[in-house]
Structure to design on (289 residues):
């Protein structure tokens, strides 16, 4: 089970890993905590079109359905409302009733019910920084951790199904310095303009403001990069197909960094770090179907 804040987050964080495990026969469920209703249109080709901005909720649901098909996963809307990304100094208050302001117990109850119904052995989500400090990402982390801890407790959240305890919880790790440097150097060596120069120049400044993730697990998934990209492009309002992410040729990505990365946050099974499988320790404990 992969728990995300908005539609499109699933396609930029661990998507190729999900496609690999689906291909290997695992059941994979993506949970979107919100509908992305307050997200801006980020694709320049679609920005400013009133028919899109007036129907962004329905459009993002349709985009999500297309991404789900590209990855081969199942999907569940948790049903909360996008908080939007506040901007300004001072920051404006969050909208009333949004996901980040919903009581933690209420949102956790909703996710516990999904966990108990789907019965995942492994969950993935964001770390305490949210990947980046969007209020919905931070609340997604809080809700996911709380649900992981509560789902197996028979005293917690009565009426949401029989207790079920997931065995491992991971945080998605997208762009580490190692990955960015590997991509940047490979592009420079090939005479291709690198979109990572500014990232590297400001890396230390960003690193000083938040905890850097600890990579414990690398999943070899380069055979599924096309599915990842198809899922990303499905979110047409959010992703520019001419943008920086698609500037790195797939053959370069496969050669220099063919993995997706995760940080093991909780484990109730024995496993050796570093890992190359999210189900390490689980396979030995749970019989294959």
């Amino acid at each position: 089970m992969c728990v995300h804040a908005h539609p499109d987050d699933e396609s930029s964080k661990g998507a190729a890993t999900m496609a690999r495990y689906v291909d290997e026969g695992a059941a994979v469920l993506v949970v979107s905590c919100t509908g992305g209703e307050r997200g801006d249109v980020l694709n320049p080709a679609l920005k400013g079109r009133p028919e899109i901005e007036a129907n962004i909720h329905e459009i993002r649901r349709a985009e999500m359905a297309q991404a789900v098909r590209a990855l081969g996963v199942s999907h569940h809307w948790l049903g909360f409302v996008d908080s939007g990304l506040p901007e300004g100094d001072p920051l404006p208050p969050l909208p009333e009733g949004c996901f980040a302001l919903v009581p933690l117990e209420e949102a956790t109850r909703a996710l516990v019910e999904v966990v108990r119904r789907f019965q995942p052995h492994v969950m993935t989500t964001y770390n305490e920084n949210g990947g980046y400090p969007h209020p919905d990402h931070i609340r997604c982390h809080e809700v996911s951790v709380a649900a992981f801890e509560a789902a197996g407790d028979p005293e917690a959240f009565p009426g949401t199904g029989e207790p079920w305890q997931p065995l491992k919880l991971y945080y998605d790790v997208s762009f580490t310095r190692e990955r960015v440097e590997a991509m940047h150097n490979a592009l420079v060596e090939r005479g291709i303009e690198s979109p990572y120069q500014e990232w590297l120049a400001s890396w230390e400044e960003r690193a000083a403001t938040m905890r850097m993730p600890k990579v414990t697990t690398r999943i070899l998934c380069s055979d599924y990069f096309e599915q990842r990209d198809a899922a990303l492009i499905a979110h047409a309002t959010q992703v520019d197909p001419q943008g920086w992410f698609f500037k790195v040729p797939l053959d370069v990505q496969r050669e220099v960094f063919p993995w997706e990365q995760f940080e093991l946050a909780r484990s109730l099974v024995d496993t050796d770090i570093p890992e190359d499988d999210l189900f390490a320790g689980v396979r030995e404990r749970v019989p294959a179907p």
